[in-house]
């Protein structure tokens, strides 16, 4: 082969190697970059999906709480009671203040309240049944008893009465009579009487024990026609407020019943607790504060807010391949879900749809423990 031709082939081969080296390195670099970009994007997308799923779990928990409260209280919708109406109807009485004192300054549930072993039910007085409303019969007071109250569970039952101020120092005779149907004779029988001394121009709340009468009503509901309340001073003036007349709103009689809570609290099992900044992917309990004012629920007197918590995270599948399916489509997986495995109640003071004040226990309001099931 002539030397010039051999030299030309050698030069072309060198150029070919140079071009292959440049193009090959560039191609590999491009592929590597694309691969790295894909991996990074996949990680970011996974974190984003987890964040979105957690936010969705939180919103579902809030919606569940609203529906659950209305269902437990047997309300088709939230009572239409404004903040001004609450101030107007809320009894200005010592036991109500004691109940409100159980909540902290921010309106949340205190630690002592969470561990309470009794429940208080407050029932406002209404007009007696029409069957007792003969001529000269009183317009007060009837009390509808909660089915939660059982004869043997009553720790305390008190009737609270507000006395108007007397014009001068005097002795007041408080009389409580059980109402009966007119066919039974006089229509009333005295069951309690109490004598107290009051100062001039001094109003006051007085309470009378009603445990025995309440137990008899529970054992024989057919004899519960309510009671008549009288409080006469030395001049024969009735000082007892028995209805919400103008200027006396929130001063009508009510029944305070404290019952024992038979449900025993056990020590909380261990479980994962996380915060909103946690990178934990497993099933975990996250903090969530429910604010009833954000709901526009002024009919709930207390607590105004409480720690509800919610569950979110992944659950280990029974079979290895199920975990891959769950990662690819976490919401479409039929495997175990991260759900509450232990819940506890809260005590709530609220108005029902008849503008009666109830203080009772609402079950399953706080997530104590999360698990896979």
TrEMBL record:
InterPro entries in the cross-refs: Cystine-knot_cytokine, TGF-b_C, TGF-b_propeptide, TGF-beta-rel, TGFb_CS
A GO-annotated cellular component: extracellular space
Compartments reported by the entry: Secreted
Highest rank taxon of the organism: Eukaryota
Signal peptide location: 1-27
Family according to the record: Belongs to the TGF-beta family.
Protein's UniProt name: Growth/differentiation factor 8
Source organism (scientific name): Triplophysa rosa (Cave loach)
């Amino acid at each position: 082969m002539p030397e010039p031709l051999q030299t030309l082939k050698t030069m072309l081969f060198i150029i070919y190697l140079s071009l292959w080296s440049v193009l090959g390195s560039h191609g590999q670099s491009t592929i590597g970059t694309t691969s790295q970009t894909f991996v990074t994007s996949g990680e970011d997308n996974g974190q984003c999906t987890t964040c979105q799923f957690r936010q969705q779990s939180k919103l579902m928990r809030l919606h569940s709480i609203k529906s659950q409260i209305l269902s437990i209280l047997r309300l088709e919708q939230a009572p239409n009671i404004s903040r001004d109406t609450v101030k107007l109807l809320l009894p200005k009485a010592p036991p109500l203040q004691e109940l409100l004192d159980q909540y902290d300054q921010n309106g949340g549930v205190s630690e002592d309240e969470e561990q309470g072993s009794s429940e208080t039910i407050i029932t406002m007085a209404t007009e007696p049944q029409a069957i007792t409303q003969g001529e000269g019969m009183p317009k007060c007071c009837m009390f509808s008893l909660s089915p939660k109250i059982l004869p043997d569970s009553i720790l305390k039952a008190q009737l609270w009465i507000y006395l108007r101020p007397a014009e001068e120092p005097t002795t007041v005779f408080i009389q409580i009579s059980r109402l009966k149907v007119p066919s039974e004779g006089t229509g009333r029988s005295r069951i309690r009487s109490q004598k107290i001394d009051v100062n001039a121009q001094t109003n006051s709340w007085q309470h009378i024990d009603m445990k025995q009468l309440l137990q008899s009503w529970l054992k024989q509901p057919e004899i519960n026609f309510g009671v008549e309340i009288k409080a006469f001073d030395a001049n024969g003036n009735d000082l007892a407020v028995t209805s919400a007349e103008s200027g006396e709103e929130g001063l009508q009689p009510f029944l305070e019943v404290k019952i024992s809570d038979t449900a025993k609290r056990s020590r909380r099992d261990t479980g994962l607790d996380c915060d909103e900044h946690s990178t934990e992917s497993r099933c975990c309990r996250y903090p969530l504060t429910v604010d009833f004012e954000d709901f526009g629920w002024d009919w709930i007197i207390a607590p105004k807010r409480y720690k509800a918590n919610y569950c979110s995270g992944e659950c280990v599948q029974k079979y290895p391949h199920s975990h891959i399916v769950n990662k690819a489509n976490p919401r479409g997986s039929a495997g175990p879900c991260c759900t509450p495995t232990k819940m506890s109640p809260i005590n709530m003071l609220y108005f029902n749809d008849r503008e009666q004040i109830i203080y009772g226990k609402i079950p399953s309001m706080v997530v104590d423990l999360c698990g896979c099931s």
